[in-house]
Design brief:
The protein has 105 residues and is mainly beta. The protein is built from one helix and ten strands; from the N terminus they run E-E-E-E-E-E-E-E-E-E-H.
């Protein structure tokens, strides 16, 4: 299902990680924050996903430096309110109700 899942106000720092052949490479949700460096995501349906799953929590954030996403159907999906920062470049979410899209497919 997911290579790595961060949730419920967690904070995780990862370095030199490889996720291969998963539905979702790395999911960050529910007011959590992840910092990734030297990360490779290969052959996943969705490389990164950032969203709010549970109503009692808020949006999430992933900060990445030196990431490679190879062979994914979608490199990333970001729900409105959540963010990914790629090598200091901010990408804000546009997706609405992303949990429905992720958990019904």
């Amino acid at each position: 299902d997911k290579g790595i899942s961060i949730g419920e106000r967690s904070f995780l720092t990862m370095d030199n990680i490889t996720v291969d052949n998963s539905n979702i490479g790395i999911a960050c949700k529910d007011q959590s924050e992840a910092e990734l460096s030297a990360t490779e995501i290969k052959k996943c349906n969705i490389g990164l996903v950032v969203f709010q799953k549970k109503s009692e929590y808020g949006s999430a954030l992933i900060k990445v430096n030196n990431i490679k996403i190879i062979g994914s159907v979608e490199d990333y999906l970001i729900e409105k309110g959540s963010k990914i920062i790629f090598d200091n470049k901010l990408v804000k979410g546009e997706e609405i109700n992303l949990k429905e899209k992720i958990y019904t497919n």
